[in-house]
Amino acid sequence: MRPTVSLAWASLSTSLSPLFFASAVQLLPPPPIPSRFTAAFIQNQTASFPHPKNGTPLVIDTFTDPDRNDLGFWHGPSTSLASEHGNGYVRLYSSDPDQNYHTELGPATCFDMQPYKHMYLHVVFSGSTKFSVSLNQHNQKCDSRRSPFLETWDTVEAERYSRGNDLYVPLAHFDIDQSRTVSVSFHGFFSRETLTLYKVEIVTEIPWGFYIPPKLENGKLYLHCTRPNSFAFGIDDGMPHLVQDVMKILEEEKILVTFFVVGAGLRDKEANFSQVYKEMLRRGHQIALHSDTHQQIEGLDTIKAIDEEIVHNIETFQRLLGIQSRYFRPPYGTVGARTRQRLAAYLKDPRIINWSVDVEDWLWAESKTPERQRDAFFRDVGRGGNLVVMHYLSPTTVQYFREFIRFVKSINVDIMRVDQCLEDPDSPPFDPYRYRQRGRYRVESNRNPEDQQGETG
């Protein structure tokens, strides 16, 4: 039985600890770039595998080396994922759906898998089938130092494609730009059962009689605006006593943003969020889905529990705001195959929105160094990020919000709603003259030089 969640906003907000808003783990932490690779090579070159010959499989990983796969590139787990490496296997002891294990297809740059587009990803494993498998796409510059490092990924549910100890997935079932492939990853664990991996390879054929299921529709994942010269603030949960300050800033700065809204907060009459977001809609802002009770949806035990988080959020929007949305930000940024598939079961062409700029208010807003929210923002924008995650849960975050807006304006970038920055034909036309505050802006850190000594980026 699922734990009950009070719909009173006070009790909901009490549970929103800094850990609750921990940033989603990027599926692949940038590995060290080999010294022989110059920046020009990383940004401009696209490597490719040897073309398949005579049906010979391309062996990616047999887990004989703890640090490198059979292609000679990095493989390994995310920091929090406990693992055991043996001769010819790696065993994963998962405890969170955000944990992941990657095996890279190249040295942190783009690799062209198009010659293999009619072939199959084959994984030999034992243990749990309660996980997702992804093929990951690099950013346009093929540079791991740019944000986002992984621009997107497509995901399948392991159980649907497995029989016995084998898993076969047609590469055509991964809807990404496969000329910019980075890695294969295992994540979205929704059980503490162990998973042992023995082999990852690309093969030309599947065994006779092995059933390949049809590709299920799923939501497309975005971490980055696609419209040239655009920037979007995606604002998640907030506190009632701060919302008027946020509305004032938005009105005075003459920008539109997207709010990702939890259904339970909307239903809380005392918090009055339904009236707040009706006013936001009237002013032209976008209101988008953010689950019903802000749980890690991919980690829920059953499809029924996942459906409840999605359907109740949709129904609350229809009943209290009179709107429908196909935009969804998963709590924590946690997303796997089941969440993506269930969104597509209830929404036409759902768009799943994560981020490439993290203000890190979940980490710094209530700390002794809240100014590090500024540092995080400027760092990610400097790396090329243009789609923000932030909350208005703390006065310090709201305090820096106007500064963030004015900085983006000063670099001649247009701020708009998420649907506009993703060039959605159903979004309202963007008015380029809504604001025109231009000029120079100098970024200065509030941190003392002594505080930065010994830190690494």
From TrEMBL:
Metal-binding found in the keyword field: yes
Which controlled-vocabulary keywords does the entry list? Carbohydrate metabolism, Cobalt, Hydrolase, Metal-binding, Signal
Q: Which residues cross the membrane?
A: none
Signal peptide position in this chain? Answer: 1-24
Q: Which residues form the NodB homology domain?
A: 229-416
Q: Which PROSITE patterns match?
A: NODB
- Cofactor section: Co(2+)
Question: Which region ranges are annotated with the description Disordered?
Answer: 427-457
Q: Where is the composition biased (Basic and acidic residues)?
A: 441-450
Quote the InterPro entries the UniProt record gives. Glyco_hydro/deAcase_b/a-brl, NODB_dom
Which domain of life does the protein's organism represent? Eukaryota
- Name the record gives this protein: NodB homology domain-containing protein
Which species is this UniProt entry from? Aspergillus cavernicola
